[in-house]
Every structure is written in structure tokens, then in C-alpha cells.
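Note to self: keep these together.
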Amino acid sequence: MVSIFAVDLGTSMTAVALPLLLIRDYGATLAAGLTLAIRVVPNIAVGPIVGRLLARRDPRRIAMLSSLLSALFAALIPVCGALWQIQILTLGIGLTAMLAGPARFVLRPAVVSEGDERRGNGLLMAAQRVSTLTGPPLVGVIVAVGWPLWGAFLLEAASALVAVVMMLQVPPLPPAPDKEAEATGDNGRGMFRTAYVTSTRALLRVISDDAFIRGATLTSFSYVLAVTLGRMMLIVMGAQHYSGISGFYGWMLAAMGVGGLCGSLLIGRFKRSSTGVLYVAVMLIEAVGWLSLPWLPNFSAAMAVMSTIGTMESAGYVLYYAEVQIRIPRAHMGYFYAACIPVVDACVFLGSAFGARLAGASVSAAAVIVASVMGVPMLLTARWYFTPPGDVSETVSMRDGAKSAEKREEREA
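Structure:
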């Protein structure tokens, strides 16, 4: 939890400090915008190769290495004298993030006990939400008191080092038999080609054999696109409908973050409730929330709705991660995340590129589109969330790497 908090704290600070630095030193130019976008390019382009690494290496070591490199790249940003230097370092940070995200996802079963997946993933999600609530205000304090902006990058480097120290307390996770690579004919040569093939094959196998994972994974792409479009819509709403409210967008994200913290902590209490019912309900409630935003009477109502949206968002993520941990064995998990995350990043890129133009044309139409992109796929796949685990599912003891055949037989029965 502390490691995740530290990593996301640094990331959230850089997400605020880097645009401020670029605009201050280089202006609001296309080159500055590309510098921000370049961070997600590595994951979109070569993210699937991470699955092969996670299947054959201890993900704890990969997470630690990525944090060390991230600390180095962030600490070097303040000494850059040219934009191309910042772009190279930003690309490097993107490469470390490409490794860190899937590695920490794969490590979750090593620290979350069987039967406690919902509560455990809720606590880990809460750590993420606290960090994203803390990072931007810290940058604001640095700017407000007149401290140099480079202090934010040094704080990110320090937080990455804290993450490394905390990862030493996490039990190692020995490599599992790489059955996916063996089935694909991966003999160690042609790493990039075979890694792409293997990650894609593992993703297709998982979603074909387990209806819940199939539905949740496919709708996660449309969901992320919808949320990204929604955030762009909030920026336009702040300029058009709430121009008298200073920092409207920041207030909306803060309300969403507070709601997210509550949702991640509360969802673990619904241990006896059907995961399918909860998952469909939180997603549809969130879609209604986005739809209502342009027609709300005042700023207070918008804050309340955004808090509800944040609660539903975090609850949905916790349910998804818990089911992935339950239903997908260790040998598939790294490949699964390595194949999914690049597609998610591509959806973020699309939403960021077209969201502002869409909302600028009509905020009301944008709200309808956001709600439709989020809600309609959920309704179309609703019945999938009530099915038991498929053939690919097996309960795996991540502490000793042994399979639990008894529980698998109980689920199949």
C-alpha cells in the first residue's frame, strides 16, 4: 500500500508540474503538447512485451527497477536545458510506467489473501486515491510559497525511492510455468514478435473462457474512453457554464477523488452481495451521473454528483481487480495486463484528442455520448457478469506457487 501510494504520489505531482514547467519555459506549443503525450507512447507501442517479462521474472524486482529508473529520470528533468532533453526523459518515465503498472497488478495476489480479494483490492485502491488527492495540492503549495518548480520533480524522485524500500517488504513471487509462451512456440528468440503474439493469445484465451472477464475487459475500453471524454467535458463546462467558479475543473476532480476514496473503502463491506449485481449497478449509476451534469442547477449539485461518480468508479475498479485475481491464474495474469493496458492507454489518447472538440460543440450532446459509451455496452453484456469462472480459472496460492485443485473442482461443480 505504501509503495503504491508513493509511486502514484510522484506520478500525480509530475502530471501537474510538467505542464506548468513546459508552458512556463516553452509556451503552449505543439511541441510542448507532444512532450506530455509521449509518456503513454511506449506502453501503446511495446507494452505487450511486459507480459513475457512478468511470466519469467519476479515482478517485485521489475517493480523495484522501474521505480529506481523513474527516480533517476525525474531527478534529471530540472537540469535540462532544451526541450528535446525533457522529451527523452519523459519517454524514459513512460517506459518505467509501462513496467511498473502490470508488475504491481501481478503482485497483488502475493499480499491479498484468498477470500479477501474485494477488501484487499479496496485498500490498495484507497492508497491510490489518497495519493492522487495529495499530489496536486503539494505542487500548488510549492508554487504558492514561491519555491522552485523543480522541487516537485525531486519529490517524485524521493517518492520513487520510498516505493523501492517498501517493495523489499513484499514477498517474492517466483516465476510460474510460462505455458502461454510454450503454446505459442516462444523459444527465446524473436522476443518482440513472440511477446506480442503470446500476450494477444493469452488475452483472447482468458476472455473466451470466462464470461465475466470477457465482459469487464471489453467494456473497460469503452469505459475509459467515456471517462476521458467526460473529463474533457468538465473543462469545457468550467469555461462555459461555471466561468464564475475559479478552478472548477480542479474542484470536480477533488470531489471525484474524495468519492473514489470512499468507494474503495466501502465496497469491501459488501462481502455477501453478488459481484455481478454490484458491478452492473455501479457502472450504470455512474453513467447516469455523467449524463446529468449539464442539467444540474448549481455548483454544489455538480460537486455532489462528481463525488458519487468517483465512488462508483472506484467501486467498479475494485470489483474488477478482485475478480481478475480470483479468476485468472498467475501464468496468465502478466500477459493479460500487458495486453490490456496498452489498449486502455490508446482509449485515453483518443478521448483526450477528441473530447474537448466534442464538448465544445455541445456540452449536452457530449454528456449523452459519454453516458451512452459507458452505459450501453454494460447493458448489452449484463448477463455475462452473473456466470461462474470458466475453464481458464483456477485458484492459485501465490505464496508458494502451488495450485489448489480442490477449490477449482468446487468452482467447476
